[in-house]
Amino acid sequence: MSSNIRTHRPLKMRFKLFANLIFFIAIALLLLWGMQIFLLDSFYYQLTKNSMASAATEIEEIYVSGTSDFSQRIYSIALNNEFCVSVFGPDGKLLSSANVGGGCIIHNIDDKTLNDLYGKALDEGGEYFHRAGLAGFQNNAGPGKYIVRDRILYISVRETASGSLIMLFDGATSPVSLIKAVLTMHLLLVSIVLSIFAGLMANVLAKNLSQPIADVNRAAKKLTNGEYNVQFTGESYLEIYELSDTLNQTAKDLQRTERMQKDLIANISHDLRTPLTLITGYCEMMRDIEGENTPENMQVVLDETARLSSLVNDLIDLSKYESGAQKLDIASVDLDFLLLETVERYRKLMAGKEYTFVYDSVGPTFVNCDKKRILQVIYNLVNNAINYCGDDKTVILRLTDGENGRKRVEVIDHGAGIAKDDLPLIFDRYYKVDKVHNRAITGTGLGLSIVKNILESHGAVYGVQSELGKGSVFYFEI
Ligand code: ADP
Fold first, then answer.
1. What is the C-alpha to C-alpha distance for residues 387 and 355, in angstroms, rounded to an integer?
2. 386 in ligand 1 pocket by Cβ < 6 Å?
3. Ligand 1 center to residue 432 CA distance, Å?
4. Closest CA relative to residue 427, chosen from 456, 404, 467
5. Number of DSSP helices (H) and strands (E) in the chain, helices first
6. Ligand 1 test: best mutation among 259, 388, 453, most atoms within 8 Å of CB?
7. Inter-residue contact 361 to 336 (CB < 8 Å)
8. Whether this model's pTM surpasses 0.70
9. Cα–Cα distance measured from residue 16 to residue 6, given in angstroms and rounded to the nearest whole number
């Protein structure tokens, strides 16, 4: 069934892991590349901008302080920041110029360009940054030649008491391209190494993860072939460990069910064959031998027929209960009266067989239940008590108040009792403690299973207390 719902065959764990790892690494690398390569440029530009702006403030302060070593201080600022600086006084005269790197464009700047930049700075509130190839700004590259290298140009106009101070800064962004090239190489290497690593990791992880699953799968296949003693031993991960436990339990359950089914078939065939043999034998005898057609012989045939039909009824009932086809007919029923009637009936039925039936009651007790079904529960329990009470031959029925307003019915015998190990199993279908079929004790191993089904459909509490050699108390509270 389930294979019909599946739409595709999934990938092997190894490939899936590899794909996931590669995807993860690709995302990480993409982020790294994005940060390093693409953002590096703007980070660097921003930093240069900041340091140029703060250098402008510093130069303004130096200028205002009227120090005598003005040019020297400008030079050291330029040197520290690795950009060129030119400072013009209020009358447009060059006060100082610090050239600390090649390729500067501000030292031989023509008046027109300077005026242009000055105008732009004034337009933008006193400062103007320019970046890029600077096409159009002529410099010492030679007349008619233009700078194509990427540079940052900054002009700051500060108003001082003695007039405007114009500062020109010029820095290269070229280190960025160098760093970028180095980083690209590094990242390329890292990407290759990580991809190889992802492949290896995927292999190792897949092996570690899939091996125990493959082991469990192999064992499970054995289980489907009926090898119930197969052991699931996976313990590398908690999940596999728990799965193994569950499958070990499943194997045990399957084994038990199969054994019970075999037992049931053996029991039922025995139970069917014995009455059939008797019926055939008696009928032939009555047909062939004169005088044998007696009411007693006829009764044997009738008894055996009844036994047969009760067996068949048990089977039909159980299959009905288990399929949920049986509906309950709930009404108020006097349990006390029901039990009393039952005891009377058994006393009559077993008259002359030295059985003692004791009934102990709190008096009339009404409960809501399906009378026919509850009667069947009582019959099944009493039949068992009769079958298993041994030489004591006493069956006690007791009606008392149970817990939570329920009424409690107990069927007690002082027979062989039930071993502790068997107790949790006896309500299971087909379960018989005594595997060797014993004609003296009738039963198919279905009685308690029917009891369980009926009581559960009533929402009743039920169980058994038993000790080997001392007898059993089967009870239910409804
Ligand atoms: P069966 O038809 O074999 O009696 P049941 O389902 O009624 O089947 O009972 C299941 C098994 O539980 C029995 O085979 C028997 O071994 C055990 N059992 C049931 N009732 C008693 C009891 N009163 N004393 C001892 N064993 C019992």
1. 11
2. no
3. 6
4. 456
5. 11, 12
6. 388
7. yes
8. no
9. 18
